[in-house]
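U., I forgot to send this yesterday:
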Amino acid sequence: MRSHPSHEPADRRVHVRAVATALFVTLLWSSSWILIRVGLDDHDLAPLTFAGLRYSVAAIVLLAWVGSSPRLRNESRTIIRTRWRPLVVLGVVYFAITQGAQFVAIDAQPAATSSLMLAPTALLVALMSSRSLAEQPRRLQFVGAALIIVGAVLYFSGDLGATVIGMTASIIGLCANAAGSLLGRSINRDGSLAPVLVTASSMSVGAALLLLAGLVVEGWPHLTVRLVLIIGWLAVVNTALAFTLWNRSLRDLAAVESSAINNTMLIQIAALAWVFLGESPGPIGVVGILVVSTGAFLTTYRSSR
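Result:
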């Protein structure tokens, strides 16, 4: 009797493709931190308004994409009637709070310090996912999440230039980022909603709140041509495209896996700072890079068994 072919190779290919997609997205997001620093420093742009403009333009692009597709328009009507609540919560938590806090943190202290504060995200998600998502992390994933934290601390050991405002915003961003990772996985894992719809609807909510808060607290900024180009690139490529691809990857990645991949941004941001800002790591920093890379691999690795 011939045995049925295993679906495992196909499942592994899907998982590898999801990991590759998520890593590509984190590369885009890591480059955002450099561009955000340029916008904040060179143009004296206030952080909440900057974030609000970035995500508002991105939301407009995504809504135009949805509006141009009859299939997506029909599906969006279903969302409005039945599934809008979790998407609104995702928009508030993952865009308004998380991204707003990160912009404030980057404005108040070095970007590397702010990114370091996101290191515990994978461990927090691993601890909470078994209860909230019924996704029991493997022991290897706990080890990997812990290694990410250890490697981050090694890399950024020394004077981090932290400030009270920056650290407070970073802690808020850390908690919101972990909660957003769990909620995003919960919404995307059944694959019933198109990723672009998840992104467009949740981002529209968060962007509106960010822009409103920025205009009320900070006022309208003076926009130069260079700043418009930075905001345009961040909005279209690093936000509209990146978050849509991210939500697509969340269909196939467990919450702890996606948060671990997200934490590779620690090293990506450090590498970009090395290349573009001349901030080269010392020997301990190189060890930290290796430890974080090992932790991310262990957290996302799935054996053939």
